[in-house]
Amino acid sequence: MASSSIALGIDVGGSGIKGAPVDLDRGDFAADRIRIATPAGASPEAVCRVIAEIVERFDGAHGHAPIGVTIPGVVAHGVVRSAANIDPAWVGFDVVAHLHELLDHPVVAVNDADAAGIGEMYYGAARGREGLVMLTTLGTGIGTALIHDGVLVPNSELGHLEIDGHDAETRASSGVREAEDLSWEKWATRLQRYYSHVEALLWPDLFVVGGGVSKKADRFLPLLDLRTPIVPAQLENRAGIIGAAHLAARHA
């Protein structure tokens, strides 16, 4: 296998930082994933040191492969612009420049939902689909990714649409379903309102539903009445790593 078909994906999460080399021909891990606990406080510098540690573990086998890093926030031109669920010190932090100082690798940084969307677009549930695809990750909040004819429209943040006077994710996320102990039927009513609203705004060709709850898609997707096809994600918790690696290979 040619080394050019390998890129590294690193997924930064609240509890763990995970990474693996990705075989871009197959769209799957080329070696076992490594996970290191997210350092206490999760400062940018501390997280970057963990990223460097993961990269160094794979360097022997994969040389100077490009690296894609997911960030749980808005990322514009390598700079983190929001920090809703991470240390506020990330705002304004040039993560790409910092990692370039630590590592002799090309680096791309991307919003975590955008990375998952790219993973599903090229290797998962949306593979081969043309037009506008929207991925939604239903977790603690609602992450979104918009991809038109294979091209990512970054940092869409459509989980924060105001619907009926509420930030959408405060009513319809999987985290809210659990916190309020909603039945699948009651939660589906809220999801219906959310997806119908997005549908009317964007007229997408496909919705892909990710997040851990997508493993139980049969419990709630059949309850939705939409004109847009809506399907569960296929890559599960590998989507971010795979999507980030794909973007790194294309743009680093």
Question: What descriptive keywords fit this protein?
Answer:
252 residues; alpha/beta; Nucleotidyltransferase, domain 5; five-stranded mixed β-sheet
Can you characterise this structure?
The protein is built from 7 helices and 15 strands. By secondary structure, it is of the alpha/beta class. It has 2 domains: 3-112, Nucleotidyltransferase, domain 5; 125-234, Nucleotidyltransferase, domain 5 (2-Layer Sandwich), CATH 3.30.420. A hairpin with a 2-residue loop joins strand 6 and strand 7.
Describe the structure concisely.
This protein has 252 residues and is of the alpha/beta class.
SSE order and pairing:
Layout: E1 6-12, E2 16-23, E3 28-29, E4 34-37, H1 44-62, E5 67-71, E6 75-76, E7 79-80, H2 95-102, E8 107-111, H3 112-123, E9 132-138, E10 142-148, E11 151-153, E12 162-163, E13 166-167, H4 169-172, H5 174-179, H6 184-202, E14 206-210, E15 230-232, H7 239-251
Parallel strand pairs: 1-5, 5-8, 9-14, 14-15
Antiparallel strand pairs: 1-2, 2-3, 2-4, 6-7, 9-10, 10-11, 12-13
Helix pairs in contact: 1-2, 3-7
